[in-house]
Please model this.
Amino acid sequence: INSLKTTREFFKSPYELPGRNINGEQFHATLENFKEALQVTVGKSNIVDMFLNSVFITFTALAIALIECTMTGYVLSMYRFPGSKAIYNFMILITMIPLAGSVPSLYKFYCQTGLYDTRIGVILIYTGGFGYPFMLMYNFFTGMSWSYGEAAMIDGASDWGVFFKIMLPQAMGMILAIAVMSFMSIYGDYTNPYLFLKSHPTLSVGMTSLNDRLQSQGRYPAAFATMLIGCVPTWIFYIVTNKKMYSLKIDTGIKG
Model:
């Protein structure tokens, strides 16, 4: 509501609908705040460039991360081999280490390896087979019976066949739920693109820069419009995936 007001109307009536007559002064709803937000630039990048950077980084990192956490969760939950328990315990241990403590070493590593200021460098930050997505997939596959895999193998399926044709389809609900949560964290991340991708700012960097400037000037309606524009891709992604995301079920087929 406030994104449709002028700054003067906002301070006079922050809790009312836009376009009111306040103390004899007539106000009208306006889209100028959104127009200003769409004209934001960071360096040589305009809003379109930043949006495309965000889309490429988010979906590429999301695809790689989902593949990795699904496979590692499946292997460690369904197969027992020397070192499997140690790998799981190591994963639990590294989740306790604050990420902020690794930023200086990561920055130095990226500068020495040429990954600094590259899109692939930022994408690699979000990928990995462990973390909370792995824990969710591990617990999900642990709750599934291996009888499905045994039955498929009796019919001639390989380990890959069991994973792709039997287990993976039943896990799609959980995978999409993780995708929505990870999408929001990757798309909305400001710190990593700001530190490691100076020449190719993402939409979150541009929106944050504009939002901070507007709030420091007291222009809150324009800042609200900036926030709304930044949320649009997340809304679209959720609307597209929400029905599939809630299909968290394991088909019954085992008779006791």
About this structure: The mean pLDDT is 86. Strands lie at 21-22, 25-26.
